[in-house]
Amino acid sequence: MNEFSVIIGGKAGFGINQASTIIASLFNHLGYNIYIYRDYPSLITGGHTFCIIRASKVKIGSHFNQVDFLLALNQETLDLHKERLKENAIVIFDSNSVEGQGIGLAMKNIVSEEKGQDIMRNTCIIGSFCKASGIAWNILEEVLKKHIYKDIELNLRIAKKGFDLAKEVSKIPKLASEKKAFLSGNDSIALGLIKAGLDSYIAYPMTPTSGILHFLAESAEEFNLKVIHAESELGAIIMALGFATANSKSAVGTSGGGFCLMTEGLSFSAMAEIPIVIVMGQRPGPATGLPTYTAQGDLNFVLHAGHGEFIRLVVAPGDAEESYYWSAIALNMAWKYQIPSIILTDKTAAEGTYSFDINSIPKIEEEQPVLWDQKSEYKRYLNTPNGVSPLAFFSQKNAVIKINSYEHDETGLAIEDRKLAIEMQDKRYRKEQALIEDLKNYLQVEVYGKSDTALICFGSNKWVCMEVAEKLNLKMIRPIVLAPFPKEEFKTALKGVKNLICVEDNKTSQLAELLKLNEIEVNFKINRYDGRPFSVDELEKEVKKVKI
After folding, report:
1. Which of 128, 129, 220, 420 would be a feasible disulfide site paired with 227, CB 3.0-4.6 Å?
2. Do the beta carbons of residue 16 and residue 49 sit within 8 Å?
3. What is the CA radius of gyration of the chain?
4. 9 phi and psi, to 5 degrees?
5. CATH superfamily, domain at 3-165
6. CB burial class (10 A; 0-12, 13-18, 19+) of residue 204?
7. Do domains 182-360 and 445-545 have the same CATH topology?
């Protein structure tokens, strides 16, 4: 068995997320690539939470609905997911609270006998899973010691009882001794920002980007970061812009509702030419919507947010490696061109966990901004051939720095003169052509496979579309840079393609509309907007329905 999936479920508060990470680590020890899909309600306790952990000998980044193992800590998990079971799937459950067929152990009793807490049923069911699937005890022991920091000896005893009381009914083979790193998209974004020289991160927690705030807060001392939990999203972006004016490379993170509050700051960034990176994690809306689920419904919003006209960089990474790489590029470009850069992610990409190969990522260097030469009179908005004005920062000798959200002249003084207003807007827009030329040095459009029929997608649909394209002998084309849109590169990718099938997690086919604006017509549209991502088997069925 070189490809398999495990689902573990229970109520929110049962520790399902941590359990999924432990199971993924077990597979990692056996040399597998992993991907974790997490599904949970907006509740602290109660409701139904589950994770699907997929392991494969090849690189993956999406899940299947059909599973080989089901680990049920309550009856609801078995009842809700029994339709996912493959023909010879193995079910492991806590017989104290679940009635079913399979490997049932009185896990609640085991935990009680050891005087443990109810949440430790997780370690018991994982122990049973290891025995049932032929994973050696010493591997589980090593993994538990790495991932559990509290009451480890008690957890080990409970896991060993679960292990000893179960029986081996399957054998997951070991592929290699090499262990791979695995990271969530959020963690990868955080590390990419650090790689490009991040100094400060300010955010108000909002799913699905809260993980970045948590990760950077824990890493602040190690990387000499200023990490602030702001009082609101409005406060976060204004604070970040203030840091940037003091030569602190800054980023903020939010979701759609928080980004609404940030749009005034976004426009201020554009007019005042203050570099800023915004991580925008999509989830279903409008309003609160489905706050812990996924969507791609904010593409239009991100492309057009803010009042007035200004350029912005928008990138949509599709997995952990791309989240790392393009977050670094976004920060570099923000400071190189003194513009807002937006990293467009979503719950699937942000909170999904992927095997991570740092060696597959192109080399990244922190780029330094254009600085004032300290010889001529300092003009904050000096009108230059490419539109980029040299930077100086507060406290520099002989530099009078005026930051102005009003239209202004080269020195930063507010103006209303028609001729000057045109000159300054043209100056800011000259950056766009320089940015477009610069981006030609990067892979802006990913192409996979060969066919006259292509699946078109963006962001987290990367891997599900790649797998379906491979299964059905199709081509996959995916823009990574969404603004400025790489029209030339995209049309090159379309050579020989007659039919375009656009796959999106939204109702209104926003990527298809963006393509239409760039004179590219989509033939068929496949949309999902229930807050859940496409699985490989689901999308394959939908694509087969399309009549080419």
Report:
1. 220
2. yes
3. 25
4. -145, 160
5. Pyruvate-ferredoxin oxidoreductase, PFOR, domain III (3.40.920.10)
6. buried
7. yes
Tokens 């990409």 -> residue: 349
The answer to whether 233 and 262 have CB atoms below 8 angstroms apart is: yes
> Which token pair is 298?
């904010």
Asked whether 339 and 435 are in contact (CB, 8 A), the reply is yes
For the sheet with 226-229, list strands across it. Answer: 226-229, 200-203, 250-255, 276-282, 340-346, 313-315, 481-483
**Terminal C-alpha separation, the chain:** 35
34 φ, ψ (degrees, to nearest 5): -130, 160
Alpha-carbon distances of 499 from 112, 452, 456, 516, rounded to whole Å: 61, 6, 10, 14
CB-based contacts of 395: which residues, under 8 Å, 6+ apart?
none
* Six-digit token string for 438: 């610069």
Section 398-427 average pLDDT: 96
pLDDT tens sequence across 18-70: 999 999 999 999 999 999 999 999 988 789 999 999 999 999 999 999 999 99
Please write down the HEC assignment for all residues of 21-79: HHHHHHHHHCCCEEEEEEECCCCCCEEEEEEEEEEECCCCCCCCCCEEEEEECCHHHHH
pTM of the complete model: 0.96
505-514: per-residue pLDDT in tens?
A: 999 999 999 9
| Residues shown for the chain | 548
Query: Where do the domains of the chain lie?
Result: 3-165, 182-360, 445-545
354: nearest Cα among 317, 329, 326? 317
Residue 538 has, within 13 A of its CA and on its CB side, a CA count of 16
State the Cα angle at 290 between 287 and 291, rounded to 5°: 85
Query: Tokens at residue 455, please?
Result: 């699946």
Q: Which CATH architecture has domain 182-360?
A: 3-Layer(aba) Sandwich (3.40)
CA distance 341 to 354: 24
What token pair was written down for 498?
């007659």
Spatial distance between the Cα atoms of 504 and 342, rounded to a whole number of angstroms: 19
What CA–CA distances, in Å, run from 114 to 155, 159, 516? 9, 11, 63
Q: Map tokens 């796959």 to a residue.
A: 503
| Pure H helices in 246-364 | 256-272, 299-304, 320-337, 347-351
- CATH code of the region 445-545: 3.40.50.920
Convert the pLDDT of each residue in 366-405 to its tens digit.
999 999 999 999 999 999 999 999 999 988 899 999 999 9
Q: 521 with 499: CB under 8 angstroms? A: no
Tell me: pLDDT of 1 over 70: no
